Prior knowledge:
- α4 links the parallel β4 and β5.
- The longest helix has 29 residues.
- The protein is of the alpha/beta class.
- A seven-stranded parallel β-sheet has the order 3-2-1-4-5-6-7, sandwiched between helices.
- It is built from eight helices and seven strands; from the N terminus they run βαβαβαβαβαβαααβ.
Amino acid sequence: MTLESFNLEGKVAVVTGCNTGLGQGMALGLAKAGCDIVGVNVSAPTETQQQIEETGRKFVDIRANLMKLDDIPSIVDRAVTELGRIDILVNNAGIIRRNDAIDFSEQDWDDVMNINVKSLFFMSQAVAKQFIAQGEGGKIINIASMLSFQGGIRVPSYTASKSGVMGVTRLMANEWAAHGINVNAIAPGYMATDNTTALRADEQRNKEIVDRIPAARWGKPSDLEGPCVFLSSSASDYINGYTIAVDGGWLSR
Length: 253
């Protein structure tokens, strides 16, 4: 095994939800490893695009609403039209809704399940068809969660959706490995992003969280760069259907 196994020069990666946070970190990591990036976002990924173009890689900005499936065919078509192919898909787009299970609404259930599992599956299906047409395999990376392993509180649909992500990751790996398509997932732990600002600002809750993490710190988007590049590269060609926890040791406690 040499460092060349991790080289993604000339590859094209589609990354959903990369305007900020973890998606931005993974997109930047892939660009540093040689990928051109197709960013799929609801809002303008201005900072992400600038950072990626500074690495010398191309960035294609696609605006789409993954709460529904309508935009998926055009995402694949535009990626192929502008960059010639797709080699990697990172399904990062997702949402969370918080409320006690006893009061949780059907709308909050449906919204989270639709984007976190349904759109993830059909985006993967569309890209897998493109991989098969290209005849050279490909890599799909889904973003799971600590709540793929644990129950959590006050996030019923998020917990269900992220447990589902782990399940469909295995399912897709089982069916598509014969086509040279590797499907795996990354489960981030507690990460310092906009979504956790309130938690980190709560002195007591912040201390409770950090005290449980063996690494004794919150994760950063850059902590996902290496795992994402690894699962996107030929170094992971014999890894199928696995979910890697990037959590500072949270699950080990």
